[in-house]
Amino acid sequence: MGCRTANGADINAEPGVNPQTKDGRGNICPVTIILPTLAMMAKQGLEVIDDPYATEEDLINNFMNILDEKIHEAKDMLIERFEWICSQSPEAAKFMYENNTMMGYHPEEGIRSALKHGTIVIGQLGLAEALQILIGKDHTTPEGMDLAKRIEQLFKDRCAEFKQEYKLNFGVYYTPAENLCYTALKKFRLQYGIIPNVSDKDFFTNSMHVPVWHQLSPFDKIDIESQLTGYSSAGCITYVELDASAVHNTKALEQIVNYAMDKDIPYFAINVPSDTCLDCGYQGEINDKCPMCGSTNIQQLRRVTGYLTGNYTTAFNLGKQDEVHHRVKHVGVME
Length: 335
Ligand SMILES: [Zn+2]
What we know:
Layout: E1 27-34, H1 35-49, H2 56-86, H3 94-98, H4 112-115, E2 119-125, H5 127-135, H6 142-166, E3 169-173, H7 180-192, H8 218-229, E4 238-241, H9 250-262, E5 268-271, E6 274-277, E7 283-284, E8 298-303, E9 308-311, H10 312-315, H11 318-326
Parallel strand pairs: 1-2, 2-3, 4-5
Antiparallel strand pairs: 6-7, 6-8, 8-9
Helix pairs in contact: 1-2, 1-5, 2-6, 5-6
The chain binds zinc ion.
């Protein structure tokens, strides 16, 4: 599971244990809903009826109904997977249970006694692209943000209902989709072709993130995403991309971090390129060749997803590489 994983209150907390306890718990399994595909299904549904009076609101309502159906299907899939995992022998992960790595294990009750404290999560991919299909703009606009909140509220409400009904820790998850961002896009394109602002790049935008190519200040990016992070109980992250010179400007870094904390961003990260010329040792952002010695023997260390990885051009799939190429630096000051 990704590093953004979070655990909401434990509905199965044992007497005397704070439900907010994080230690000994984790995400047990996720299911991710690919939002742009549902938006296309909603659109095609209306085209089939061929109603000349169909409005944008009809399209949105159609989408919300399909989304609700898929959230319920995701719930069924999660329960099936959870039951399957619970049917495994404790011998499969003996260390984990015997050492309370997963808390609450009671041998007489099987591993469910420990796993029921974890979360099972409904994730999402491509909110920005789904909004483009539905209303022709994403959540960097007020109309887009209104609809985004409606969508996230549905995820949140359903997970809260499932949690009570099944006594399992259902949660809303802003999926990392490190591979799915590409595989889902490829399938989408086979079915629907290239649609501007939707499938004209090699990836779908991560969860509810602002698309990486939007020119914004770091403060604007935080303003937008912080309006949606509160709907997620099972994990989210907000990144800003800064250029290499930012590492020498600790005052600016501090200001950005404080701003994110003030806006209640639960998990915040600043990405700066950290490339190294393997011939002369120059460090900074190096794109084609070293500005000092001209060498092309470069290690490009970028935070592409949650973790720092070696050379991103070999460590990630084509979708994620394309996303990195489309990323713009977030520049500008607080207004
Ligand atoms: Zn060099």
